Amino acid sequence: MKPKRMVIxxxxxxxxLVPAVSWAQVVINEILYDPMGSDTGFEFVExxxxxxxxxxxxxxxxxxxxxxxxxxxxxxxNPGSRVVIHNNADGDDTPTDLFTGTLAxxxxxxxSVALFSGEHTTTNIVDFMQYGDGxxxxxxxxxxxxxxxxxxxxxxxxxxxxxxxxxxxxxNNVSTDWAACNPSPLEPNCSPAPTATPTVSPSPTSPPTSTxxxxxTTSPPPSNTPTATATPxxNTPTxxxxxPTQTPTFTPTQHPTTPAPxxNTPTATSxxxxxxxxxxxxxxxxxxxxxxxxNEIFYDPMGSDTGLEWIELLNISAxxxxxxxxxxxxxxxxxxxxxSFTLAAQQRVIIHINATGDDxxxxxFAGPSxxxxxxxxxxxxxxxxxxxxxxIVDFMQYGAGDQTWENLAVSAGIWLExxxxxxxxxxYSLNRYPDGExxxxxxxxxxxxxxxxSTNCIAPTITPTVSPSPxxxxxxxTGPGTPTVTPSPTETPTEPTPTPTVRSGAxxxxxxxxxxxx
Length: 518
Fold this sequence. Notes:
The chain is mainly β. It contains three helices and 25 strands. It has a six-stranded mixed β-sheet, with no helix packed on it. A six-stranded mixed β-sheet has the order 21-20-15-14-24-25, with no helix packed on it. It has a four-stranded antiparallel β-sheet with strand order 5-4-9-10. The longest helix has 16 residues, at 2-17. It is elongated and about 80 Å long.
């Protein structure tokens, strides 16, 4: 029995010697949010374990500015070690490099990065910084937790430079901890000296090991509603502490210097509160909402267009967004001003152009106006009637460049000059494809069969070979219920006001001219 008691005592002593896991020692150490050239796949956030104990990051969440939340799975960060989280990129995770998969790009001029010791709630926030402006998302929670000062922000860095804790790993929770330097993932920051101008060629970031694939239909993780009186974080993740074994290595390679796809930096009033972002580029109290996008446009229905054209908006975020007072400009038609209306998270709404009807949660009617251009035009979304660079939220143009509001969209960084989506054939709509993916370029768009209030391009894209379902007719529907999508020629329409011109008689509905085989 004595040997057995000794073994038990030895095990108990060993257990006591294992240090407790501490989340407070992991800091946000470096952020590259505006690489030279194209941003997609080259943005990153570096975390560093500045303490003397290993930290189990399982279940931690990282909010990457305008992008979404990245959740850590089965990952341990050893003392003095770093890990780089590659934003909006796919790749094979390693002990030093993790990949978020397809999300969205970070803000090029302002935003915030927050680290949580669990789900993103006010009581779990453990580190925070904001750049370019105050009042960014999660600022209020960070101030309540005592890890940031209200309205304090790190100045925006020039393109190609990252913002770094300088000295490396030293975090006093103020903007003066940070400096703009050449990117140094997995290496000490700002060595040999800080650089604050783009005259020195920045060190390239590590590109993802595989081409990112798009999965826009994956819903972001839900937000948690913060309480009115948040307290500093107290929860400590559980896990087994391990001794440090990993020595990070990193060999940078040069990423391409193609023109950078712009990033949306809209402002708006959000819906039901989560941790509500509170300031846009103009440093007002208006929350930043970069999540409502123009998702599908049907500007050239078969036959008569009047009453049959529509535009679909999609809320790609996890928060409801109040669209009250927003304006939508559909090319040649009048500006549509949104009435009191809230677009729920992950939901769509159709705005029927030049048509009247009863508004519902999924359909809104712009009233009598003009039809959109059948071969060229633009669609622009504003958060207010000012039509300024601060108010423009989303933009696209089709058929040709230099359409209405192109210059403003280019100045706002949400479109490229002279870029346009090719004109779609009559009866087809232009769709973001994959559904909900917004890279602010014409490459986001594809011509497909109309799919109002449904996932885009679920049927084969535009092709002369097979038509799985009949093309849309010019028969309108109004009021609540199914919007105009591809009714069969025999359906009885409910006419809108004003009454559109309707063709009658037989039509060629489907042609199979190239069957398989002979």
